[in-house]
Amino acid sequence: MARKIAFINYKGGVGKTSLIVNTAASLAKRGLRVLLCDFDTQSNASIWLMRLEKWNKINVNGTGSIYSIFDPGNVRVKDLIIKDVVEGKDGEKLLPGLDLIPTSFNLVDLEGEYKPDPKRPSYAIFQEQLAEVEKDYDVILFDCPPNILRASQNGVYVAQEIYVPSNPDALSLIGFTLLIEKLMRFQQTSASFRTSTMDAAAQVYGIVFNSIKTNVDIEVPKMRMQLRLNQFKTQKRGVAPSAKIFSTQIRDAMVVRRAVTLGLPVILLGQEGGGDDDSVANDYMKLAAEIIDHAPST
Ligand SMILES: Nc1ncnc2c1ncn2[C@@H]1O[C@H](COP(=O)(O)OP(=O)(O)OP(=O)(O)O)[C@@H](O)[C@H]1O
Ligand SMILES: [Mg+2]
Question: Is 0.85 surpassed by the pTM of this model?
Fold first, then answer.
């Protein structure tokens, strides 16, 4: 069965999307079959991987966007998957094994306009449909906005694992604390929809520090995060016993910002991405390896 991992923190701008896109690419480069689902209306991951021109086509009328499984509700998750999404200028496949379920701006309507059947919330619809394709993947990743409103609920509901991207600052710690509070509340309200064939509800398995500047000592924020993690573990509040701060941290590097403009994950930027042992591209590859080793059953 595929591992299902949501990347989420209640703090915005910590690097959730950058981390998930580059991690997804690194996992695919290692030969895993990866599906990335974009649950953020901002559509950053979709635009990054599809490039603006192609993404614009789905944004015009929403056809092909994840929202269409809810409204008009006439397509299924399996019809939305863009296989081997990363392409070169001539349409050549640059990273086989990385698939995408894109979103467009219409996903915002899930928060207001969409009137779900109280007996069948949107996340139950998504769960049922994702189950049809799970066997095709080793890892399914969910990029979420900094909240657990309806769009993110889809990812949080089906995920087994939650990773919390963080910056070494107090606001990321607050974001993590708020995340646990909201996660607990959502799991209470969604519990009655879970069936016996489903995995257990998601727990936090990892904190990943991102955008770390050279020569900046992050021991104190790291220690504070570890204390909070331990506290939630003891209280059995949404944190798995094996949860940890990943030893791989992602350095702050200009090329991460540039990669968005180029429409490529950092590991495909060759020389520009660094590519050697001391580069941000290598940080992402190391993180992918650490994620593989940190599977819940091990
Ligand atoms: N390792 C890094 N080095 C340099 N810049 C980075 C790094 N990671 C992310 N960034 C930059 O930080 C900004 C925020 O990143 P990103 O969009 O990934 O955050 P986010 O948490 O997904 O934001 P949101 O909450 O809006 O979804 C972007 O401009 C991105 O390019
Ligand atoms: Mg984002």
Answer: yes
